[in-house]
Amino acid sequence: MVHDRSATAPKGPRLTRRIPGLISTCAVILPGAASAAEYVDTPYADRRAFSLILGPGASYTESIERSESAVAGGDGHLDLGASRTVGYDGDEVFVLIRGSLRGPELSVAGGYRSFFGDGAWQTFYDLGLLIRPFSGPWVGPRIALGARHTFSDRLAVFGGLGLSLGFGAGLRGDAEAFTGVQWIFPVGSK
To answer: Is the peptide bond before 10 cis (omega within 30 degrees of 0)?
Structure first.
């Protein structure tokens, strides 16, 4: 008897194998696109700005559900979001929708991103909340550290590492690496 394995092969591992290719493609394309932009000394320090955010990432999850079954594994994700500057130092509040490559899971992250530095390179930290309404549900805190390179008053790239906890349908912990592009749109002066 011959078995047709192509009809029953899970799609998750195949998509997970594509993550390194997606990240490599972004690593090649993003610096090339950003090199066309001209850097300004204070990109948008004197103005309020709205930003669109797009970027891939990878994460590793450990969870213990109420049924005492443990789930672990890697995943890729794609973030789509927006941010708005607040205060006088260029800090931002942000909201991200995160789609998983492993399965039909969406999550929402939001919080405060504080920047340090005045030049083209800045470091930042995120303090926020991560909500996974469909796969649990889980709700919990998220923290992250990263760096951003601003090429002009309209374009920046960033990357970082983060940790999140989830409470609800058991306990869940996630470690993540993320990258992205930030398109900046000035909307007024401070």
So the answer is: no
How does pLDDT run across 124-154, given as a tens digit for each residue?
999 999 998 887 788 999 999 999 999 988 9
Q: Which residues have a Cβ under 8 Å from the Cβ of 153 and sit 6 or more positions away? A: 40, 43, 44, 184, 186
**Structure token digits, residue 90:** 């260029």
In the block, tokens 């030049």 appear at 119
Q: What is the DSSP letter of 162?
A: E
We find that the CATH architecture of domain 11-189 is Beta Barrel (2.40)
DSSP secondary structure letter of residue 39: P
Is residue 182 within 8 Å of 156, Cβ to Cβ? yes
pLDDT in tens, 40-70: 444 445 568 999 999 999 999 888 776 555 5
